[in-house]
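Collaborator request log, item 7. Partner lab (contact: R.S.) asked for a structural prediction of Mechanosensitive ion channel protein to inform their binding assays.
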Amino acid sequence: MPTLFTFLRICLLALIPLFPVLVQAADDASQQSSDAPVKVNAAVELPNLQKVLDKIKQQVSGENNDSKLSTLNDMALELSGDADTLMQGIIPQRAQLQAQLAVLGPAPKPESGVKETAEVTSKRKSLENQKGKMDDQIKQAEAIKGGAINLSAQIVNLRRDALKTQLALNAGSIFGPRFWAPMFDPQSDDSDKVSDFVGELKDTAVLSWTPGWRTGTVLWVVLAVLVATLGRRYLEQSLAWVGIHLLPEGRLRRSFLAAATAMTTLAAIVLAFNFLDLAFTRHDEVMDEVRTFADKLVGLSILCGLIAGLGRAFLSTRRPSWRLPSISNEVATALKPFPPLTAALVFVFQTVEILNSSANTSVGTTILANGMTALLIGATALSISLRTNRVRRKMQHQGIQPEAKSTVVGLIQMAITLVGVAIMVTLVIGYVTLARFLSYELIWMGIVFGSFYILSQLVVDGCESLFSTNNPSGKSIQRSLNIDERHLSQVAALLAAIGKTILVLAAAMALLNGTFGSSTPIELVQKAIEFWGGKGLETLNIVPAHVLNALLCLVVGIYVLRSVTRWLDKDFLPKTTMDAGMRVSLITLFSNLGYVLVFLLGLSIMGLQWNKLAWIVSALSVGIGFGLQEIVKNFISGLILLTERPVKVGDLVSISGIEGDIRRINVRATEIQLSDKSTVIVPNSQLISQNVRNATMGNAQGVATITLTFPLDIDPEQVRDLLLEVYNENERILESPEPSVSFKDLTSAGIVLAVTGNVSSPRQVSGAKSDLLFDILTRLRKEGVVLSTPQTMIVEQRNGQKVLVENGDVPS
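Returned to partner:
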């Protein structure tokens, strides 16, 4: 036993130096057990992640709501994180398998003569299969992670594009921290994305400055600067010289110069940007994203060129006497900085939006850029209105009378002010998208209306100048075709109307299609009521979007109908050989039929199905049968009067003891103006069913007949010559047929003579007879001829007897 204890003691003393090594080994074993990879069931989790990714893609494909897209974006980012976590869990397991395979070593080659046991071979094959599965799982996890990240980028692009149409989206007031958060507290990698894209732009600039390309870049840049400055100036001066020296005198010079000013400014700006595009992107190694960015800037230059060009054409501060609209010099000078300022604002902020889209920045950054755009454009709109009013008030204080504003100008200024106020209000309450839409729609409408005004003036002035006989072109056309000057005026008016109609259609299409990447106003309003879309109003099958289109059709149709009616009344029909009555009847008939067609077109666009309105038709039938039959009868009679024209506007008619001039034939009644300027309203059915005397139908002449009674002892020949002389000397009496005197009767009271003469119109009979009677009585008294005194018999009672007293004489 002592020997055994001695042996154990010696062994313990021998192990004492090994205690630190054993403790370290134990710690390493504990550390290895704690760092051991967590077993993950990738075979189960990866299919679930793939299903989630597919489900998110499916939901994104048909979604437009910003809040739901934001939720889906968060789900995509979370999915990307889960896929990355799963992948990080698989990598250590794969490394462990790789270590076990390294221990086993590679399989021996047959020529080496070394044989291993079947157990080792089976173990190696099992490990290799597990390693292959893990490699596939890692690739699948990387694909899911990349798909989720790409899906998140697509969702951000969808949200950015949806901001242009989702007007009801409240993104936060401009006075709130949410709006300014992307600038001071960025929560995304926007700065890195923008820096990367700016780096690509810098690399493009460096490529354009490499040897062999440097000279061309300098030439293109210099050419762009020359075109934008000297080229625009000299081209404008050349066109002004053409207008002054080659075009005929008249309004055509003014409208041509305005159009030339706008077009030269537009051409100079667009050419300059195209040259800059060629200077920096003509290298083959330029990235596609940079080329797309440059192409969008070139397209943007067209809009900015239109803004600047139209502003210079309207204000025309260098040639005030050639200014197309009626604007005073003081107002034009005050408004001069605003067109280039507006063009610069549009270019800068549209460039920022294009940059955000190219760099795939977050929605918050896009909203910030949109809000700043709307803020500055709205402030510019209010500044235009305020400065205009201030300049006009200053002119009044200085005793200078400002130009008289037309109703259209007043409406335009009011609209600019109201839109500017609306932009500011929507920014304050947080509707940034709506403010951005209003800002760009205001600018786009200004471009469309400005272009329409200048082009319509150019078309009208050009047609009038081309067919005017005061100009060589009109004289040449008249000699070649041998037509009357009046016909040339008609052709000019007709061609001008056709040109303006085409311009109106083009302007309407431009307004409905819109620009700046926004949807049409109709689509925007449809989305605001999308919960109604497609369902309709059940039985009538009326969709609210169709109702909006129908209302728009009615407004545009009525405006076009009134414009055409006004053109017919003022411009075209007065140049024809139609009389005034025929013109009024034609215009009235055209207007009535036009209103009916516009109304039916509106109902058709609204989708109203007449078979669904059987109850309304039945009710109308009953109403027509009882209470509306007179209205319908008068309406049909009015159409008959306008087509058959038994009476027309301007005719002198007599009906039911009423005599007067027809002033207007409406669809229900006719207005007859009496001699005392009062008006009688006669239902149209009476003019059809009763006897009507039309004194002026067929250009009838008036007959002025005066019947006089002379004593028996006069000289009939003398009196006849005297009466004929008076009639012949009166300027209203026509020479053909000649005046005549007829012996009407011979009575106890004397000789009855009637003198007759014709006047050009029945309306002149009364005035002519009055003048003739004055002249006849004066001449008869001068010649000593008296008229016969009427004989009166009075029976008086004298001394119980009846006595006849003639001529009122009472015997003494």
